[in-house]
Amino acid sequence: MDKEAIRRALLRIAHEIVEKHKGVEALCLIGIRTRGVILAERLQKNIKEIEGCDLPVGILDITLYRDDLTMVSTQPVVGETHIDFDLTDKKIILIDDVLFTGRTIRSALDALIDFGRPSEIQLAVLIDRGHRELPIRADYVGKNIPTSLQQNVQVILQETDHKDDEVIVAQEKKES
Amino acid sequence: MMEWERHDLLDLEELSKEEIELILTTAKSFKEVSTREVKKVPALRGKTVVMLFFEPSTRTRISFELAAKRLSADTLNISSQGSSLVKGESILDTAKNIEAMNVDMIVVRHTSAGVPKVLADALGPSVINAGDGCRAHPTQALLDIFTMKERLGRIEGLNVGIVGDILHSRVARSNIWGLTKLGAKVTLCGPSTLMPIGIEQLGVRVTYDLNDVLKNCDVVMVLRLQKERQQEKFLPSIREYAKMFGINQEKLQTASKDILIMHPGPTNRGVELSAEVADGPHSVILEQVTNGVAIRMAVLYLLLGTKKDGAEE
Lengths: 176, 313
Fold this sequence. Notes:
The complex is a heterodimer of chains A (176) and B (313). Chain A is built from 4 helices and 7 strands.
């Protein structure tokens, strides 16, 4: 997936979000650190071009809600969560780059519910690579990329990686 | 970013600059948790943290306890009164019995220097030093440094004055280690009887003139005058100390208008700090307390993720 394909996918998702919700009332965008935040900001920009208004964007770090914290050998770095609006009765679009096992999203849902009681939470992802381990699915998908477990999907974004946007599917499994 | 590998936190002396910075960055993320409506994250669910305090404490103990609770750990308080220590059990035996009940971390404060180190060497759970004698109080120094960094944006190149009873202050010693590692210039000030001989070897400047500190520093950390020391004839009188080293509005006239006044608490109002300064616009004393919870959450989080094998030499 190249730069243009990513741009078009995000534009389509923005249209789909607005269409589905018949406007932007009570909508909020929440990006999951790190790349979900960039995608959330781009969607905010796209929606502004369509509907002419800025949706609030929040940043969610899910590290403290991970289900494997007791299994990792060293603690993962905790990023800042920054949600400066009340989530109660809001319609939340949760945004991440790659949907894989679904465990990140499970953590994110737990975290969001600690912040309030949204009326609805939907999920938007750039890539759905399959292999779910939990009953979770995305409402908006940029592209479905069927992968094997040995493969590694990497999303490169200008803002975080200082290179042109790209989605790379590598053959060998990343050491983790 | 670097990975945290240490199993115990005994002192800032042993930490690298990068380790200190990792704690500060992690604490920044944790600070937000305490501002939420639901002040709790599940990161340390199922872990048990024991507070073993052999010396009185309000701030530090409550701060550790809140930090552990906000991370969903279970906490247990043991003080020397009311425990078997009064019956003559040794500290090590008490600690080993606690360990036998499968706890994950022991936060210890003791009047003797080195007790946390002895426990860390003998026990499996992580040990955090919450103050040992006149030696070290690492989490206090970390929260002080965090507060300075949050207020002033940097540590490197800052001029930090520490005023008061340096001789008996573990807070001063830990701050000296931490601040000099991060590139701050530290000036110590206090009566000559309360200034340890040879302290300059730690890379600090010593002065006996409070005005010198107030004029040249970005931050002044005021230490509690430990009144019990008065019995030991370190000072002619508390009144004289207050006159020469106490900070009041009038003496602050010569200071930079952006100077930060810090105090690790508990404060003796009217001795080392006048009430108007303690409550005034320069004082960040209560911010220090707020930040203390975030720092301790960061330390608990980082330490509880490590295994003993990795840390043992």
